[in-house]
Specification:
The protein is of the alpha/beta class and 574 residues long. Strands 1-8-7-3-4-5-6-2 form an eight-stranded mixed β-sheet. Strands 15-14-13-12-11-10-9-16 form an eight-stranded parallel β-sheet. It contains 21 helices and 16 strands. It is globular. It has three domains: 2-17 and 147-250, Phosphohistidine domain (Glucose Oxidase, domain 1); 36-141, PtsI, HPr-binding domain (Enzyme I, Chain A, domain 2), CATH 1.10.274.10; 253-572, TIM Barrel (Alpha-Beta Barrel), CATH 3.20.20.60. Bound molecules: phosphoenolpyruvate and magnesium ion.
Length: 574
């Protein structure tokens, strides 16, 4: 039997299943059988002991460089310290509810409020509140929570619902795969699993079909789980697993090779990161540095903005970890699908067309100046570059450049150590920037093409809207022409051009970009090895003749077909 879900983290695994027990059931209306003062004291004690657990875990995770886990401890601590949540619980206890019921019913009110917003991000926050209130309630009642800390053998964990704290209780080296019946790609537990590189599938519904201890086969890339397998099905899965392992072994041999085509054309290979901690993990692939640090991730999931000092620490840590290789920091790109509660931005009808990135910074000098000061200060520790996202006009760029000058002059006046001569660039992700590129380039050192947004703005099609996903095609000649124009004009001006959207790490996208003349690619670190292997199969001299046909194809399908006819068959199996 095959259960189909949504892929969160790729990788294949064949292992025995471990069914996670469900959390204890609580009566949310249970009345207290003790004086209110005693109930409040027991709540206080539970809060104090959970706070101590969170602090200890955070320190442990931070010391081990496990940044996602450490961040999650911060999120739960902020919720624990939220005075509104605490007042709600106190009021419920004073109204006569038993302590655990007071905590859970208050948590439920907040969860329901967040779930009613019908937004993936808010649903994930509801899950965090549920996790925390359950944790407090179990502490009060002295009950065990669903727990993975006892795992001693390798397994695929199967859970109807998995809370972040439960995953963190495990020795993750034993978790060879994760299958969660409910849950979304953007929930915290999904982000954690991805960060831990555990093959994971979510949202595959009826996981109660899986039996405890049976052999299951998880394909994290396809988003499938095979269970109740016949001997033939098991043999087929073993074959698939062997093929996956061989492919992985081959890829690992590319780790230290240079990023060059079969005919010796060298290109730059850079990483996209969201957190400096990613640079502390052992790398399986050499690379040229960071082409995109999505700095807005420092601003999400928190109630207050990160201070200049906190940002400085994060940027300096990343610069030092890179040992002189470039670190391209993109200034905050909040808005669209990324919400920073600390900015309290109003909800918009068309968030991707609205108030986003530099458009917010134009009104919020405090925000951008704090960030630019932190970047210039950290630049003494390495080759830091600054990049402005969503630039649509020359005037917007001029405002950002003025802020950069102002930040530098403030630091000079305050006698604070910094570097003012860092390289400056923009994201090219709005068609107007391609049209005005000559004037923009006169003011900057480099551009990086944001193909994810360039596609959505070229076709006026929301990148998250399934109904218009047929327009979300980076291989369409309309997009290829914009990219080609950007690469050519940048080269004519003697400036640098890279691409940091998903297209760079895509098999077909990589070949098309190399044919269009791009020589700098930035992608998530999980894609680097494959990119090296793919590039080594391309004969770029011979493929040059494909440039014009690609630019003049009728549509994306024709452009892809042209590539498929011209590239070696093994390219599509690698
Ligand atoms: C892009 O738009 O291609 C890009 C890299 O930025 P983001 O996906 O963060 O918008
Ligand atoms: Mg973008």
């Amino acid at each position: 039997m095959i259960l189909q879900g949504v892929s969160v983290c790729p990788g294949c695994t064949l292992s025995r299943s471990y069914l996670l027990a469900e959390p204890p059931a609580f009566d949310l209306a249970k009345k207290a059988d003790e004086p209110v003062a005693d109930a409040l004291r027991r709540i206080d004690e539970a809060f104090a002991s959970i706070a101590a657990e969170l602090t200890a875990s955070k320190e442990e995770y931070a010391a081990a460089g496990a940044c996602e886990q450490a961040d999650l401890m911060d999120v739960q601590m902020a919720m624990l310290e939220d005075s509104f949540f605490r007042d709600q619980i106190t009021a419920a206890a004073e109204a006569g509810l038993a302590p655990s019921a007071a905590v859970l019913s208050s948590g439920k009110e907040q969860e329901d409020m967040l779930l009613a917003l019908n937004d993936d991000y808010m649903s994930a926050r509801a899950e965090d509140i549920h996790d925390l209130s359950l944790r407090i309630a179990c502490q009060i009642e002295g009950l065990a929570r669903p727990d993975l800390s006892g795992l001693t053998e390798d397994c695929v964990v199967i859970a109807k619902q998995l809370l972040p704290s439960t995953l963190m209780s495990a020795k993750v080296e034993h978790i060879k795969g994760l299958v969660i019946g409910n849950g979304t790609k953007t929930s915290h537990v999904s982000i954690l699993a991805s960060g831990l590189q555990i093959p994971t599938v979510v949202g595959c519904g009826n996981v109660s079909m899986v039996k405890e201890g049976e052999t299951v086969y998880l394909d994290g890339e396809k988003g499938t789980l095979c269970c109740a397998m016949s001997a033939e099905e098991l043999a087929a899965c073993e074959k698939e697993l062997n093929a996956f392992r061989k492919q992985r072994e081959t890829l690992l041999t590319y780790g230290t090779r240079s990023f060059e085509s079969r005919d010796g054309v060298k290109s730059g290979l850079y990483m996209n990161i969201t957190d400096p901690c990613e640079l502390l993990r052992p790398a399986d692939c050499t690379n040229d540095g960071v082409g995109l640090f999505r700095s807005e991730f420092l601003f999400l999931d928190r109630k207050t903005l990160p201070s200049e000092e906190e940002q400085y620490e994060a940027y300096a840590q990343a610069a030092k970890a890179l040992g002189g290789r470039p670190l391209t920091i993109r200034t905050i790109d909040i808005g669209g699908d990324k919400n920073a509660p600390a900015l309290a931005l109003p909800q918009e009808e068309n968030p991707f067309m609205g108030y986003r990135a530099v458009r917010i910074c134009m009104d919020r000098s405090d925000l951008i100046l704090t960030q630019l000061r932190a970047i210039l200060r950290a630049a003494v520790h390495g080759d830091i570059r600054v990049m402005f996202p969503m630039i649509a006009t020359v005037s917007e760029l001029d405002v950002m450049l003025d802020y950069l000058k102002l930040a530098a002059s403030q630091l000079t006046k305050e006698n604070i150590s910094h570097r003012a001569d860092i390289k400056v660039g923009i994201m090219v992700e709005i068609p107007s920037a391609v049209i005005m590129l000559d004037q923009l380039l006169a003011r900057i050192d480099f551009v990086s093409i944001g193909s994810n947004d360039l596609v959505q703005y070229t076709f006026a099609a929301d990148r998250l809207n399934e109904k218009v996903s047929y327009l979300n095609k980076f291989m369409h000649p309309a997009v290829l022409r914009l990219i080609h124009q950007t690469v050519s004009v940048t080269r004519e001006h003697g400036k640098e051009c890279s691409l940091c959207g998903e297209m760079a790490g895509d098999r077909v996208g990589l070949a098309a970009l190399a044919i269009l003349g791009l020589r700098k690619f930035s992608m998530s670190s999980s894609k680097l090895l494959r990119a090296k292997r793919l590039m080594s199969m391309l004969d770029l001299g011979a493929l040059r003749s494909l440039q014009e046909p690609l630019l003049h194809a009728r549509d994306a399908e024709e452009a892809v077909a042209l590539l498929k006819q011209s590239l070696p068959g093994e390219y599509f199996g690698a």
